[in-house]
What we know:
homodimer, alpha/beta, CBS-domain, CBS_dom_sf (chains A, B), CBS_dom (chains A, B)
Amino acid sequence: MRAADLVEPFPTIGIDDDAMDAARLMAEQRLVGVIVMDPDGRPHAILPGSQLLRMVVPPYIQADLALARVVDERHADLMCATLAGKRVRDVLPDEKISLAVVEPDATAMEIAALMTQSHTPLVAVLDGDRYVGAITASGLFRRLLAGTA
Amino acid sequence: MRAADLVEPFPTIGIDDDAMDAARLMAEQRLVGVIVMDPDGRPHAILPGSQLLRMVVPPYIQADLALARVVDERHADLMCATLAGKRVRDVLPDEKISLAVVEPDATAMEIAALMTQSHTPLVAVLDGDRYVGAITASGLFRRLLAGTA
Lengths: 149, 149
């Protein structure tokens, strides 16, 4: 079983796209994170939902969580408004979360080992320079368990 | 907007359940991880898929990733067999990944701040001692974006 057999479509967002579109993508497709693509169409990093949420929590609340409890509800409803006008590159973490990349002929064991080492349930598949899709830990289990059934 | 309005069903697994069932749950429901429950029915920890994969990658491959490339394909097909007979508690990481917990009256801002601080896109909702479900970062975005639409 090789990466080419395991790969599935996985949504991406451009590094210069609107940060609000990244939030929409995660919301609509129930994603834990999205793959951020370089302007040249290669995977650049992972943007986790928890990182994007950091942008909608004001610094004074991050400094004192107790304040989150007393914040005006109307303010909370406007939380996502702070994403407007920001690009994806503006909301990426300072410490880049790299995305593991494999070629289509990578073995299932290789992919599992990569996910284990990177503590990330996502590996992108590149055929040369072309992004083909991604393999998730849950997708890998789905295929591995089908083999043992 | 409060936790009680935001909570959704989220699957759990018992700490003494079969580890293979945890893999099946992630596979079938396309989860990045599952919530592990104590025998008394309270959330104990998060079990990420990448951690469960660690169990199916032999130590000699973890030590030398290059070996993953040459491993016999038939072996790879049997990867999940190593989970058989193990319980969830046997596959939890040494360093417990705690699950943030909120009461039903927690505000959206409080939940966002908790996810931001814990770097986890998942918060469990407990009504007293009773597990009600969970809130995900993507679910939170879905509701917050609906408010700004």
